[in-house]
TrEMBL record:
InterPro entries, alphabetized: CD20-like, TMEM176A/TMEM176B
Gene source species: Sciurus vulgaris (Eurasian red squirrel)
Keyword presence, Transferase: no
Gene: TMEM176A
Compartments reported by the entry: Membrane
Name of the protein this chain belongs to: Transmembrane protein 176A
Length: 242
């Protein structure tokens, strides 16, 4: 009986140890589950407000960066357009003054963010309005003169004139003349494609500048007039607080 009792007692000794280890693992798993659930909880109102303010600030900074980059790009594309025959779009200088105002608006935004003050705030607001107006005017000018290149670059430039006077082309041109005309016409078509692609890029840049200049106004309206759902939530929070 002693050996039997000893044999019965021996397997009972590790059993509490096994149970305690199992309980310890369950508690660790429960802690992990609780930690995961805490991450999925909705943030507090103060945390949500802070995150919204940070998101709006990042959007403003992004709009200023876009204005700086696209303003410089508008000036560069406008300089390329001046290498071709002059059109109304080139004479207007829309690419230059639109890019300059956009660069100034972006720089004023960064200066206001760094220094603050009423003067910088007013300057930033004025330049933002000026950027919106110049982008709108540039889009209108570019749209009205988009196909004007056809009247300045055509296949007549490939004809040969002697002594400054136009002459009638021969009925049977030489093979060299035919080759020259084909090469000239192909180059003129390439020039037309390059010119219209530059104009299309400028139009895209101006549209993006218009959208970037509207970003501060959209943020102001979003803060001033929040959605109905958020206003209802604020009212419920106020009632529950009372």
């Amino acid at each position: 009986m002693g050996t039997a009792d000893g044999g019965e007692v021996a397997p009972e000794a590790p059993q509490p140890t096994h149970i305690s280890v199992h309980i310890h693992q369950e508690s660790a798993l429960a802690k992990l589950l609780l930690a995961g659930c805490s991450l999925l909880r909705l943030p507090d109102p103060t945390t949500g407000t802070a995150s919204q303010a940070l998101g709006s600030r990042r959007l403003l900074v992004a709009s200023w960066v876009v204005q700086l980059v696209l303003g410089v790009l508008s000036g560069i594309l406008g300089g390329f357009l001046y290498t071709f025959q002059h059109t109304k779009l080139c004479y207007s200088g829309a690419a230059i003054w639109t890019g300059a105002v956009a660069v100034l608006a972006g720089a004023a935004g960064f200066l206001y963010e760094k220094r603050g003050g009423i003067c910088w705030a007013l300057l930033r607001t004025l330049l933002a309005l000026a950027a919106f107006c110049t982008a709108t005017a540039a889009i209108m000018i570019g749209a009205s003169n988009f196909n004007q290149y056809r009247y300045y670059i055509n296949e007549n430039d490939c004809k040969v004139y002697s002594a400054g006077w136009p002459t009638v082309a021969p009925t049977t041109p030489s093979p060299q003349e035919v080759t020259r005309l084909i090469l000239c016409i192909s180059q003129v078509n390439m020039l037309k494609a390059l010119f219209i692609s530059l104009e299309a890029m400028l139009m895209g840049v101006w549209v993006l500048l218009l959208l970037a200049s509207l970003a501060p106004l959209c943020l102001y309206c979003w803060r001033r007039f929040p959605p109905k759902k958020k206003r209802h939530e604020k009212k419920l929070l106020g009632v529950s607080g009372i």
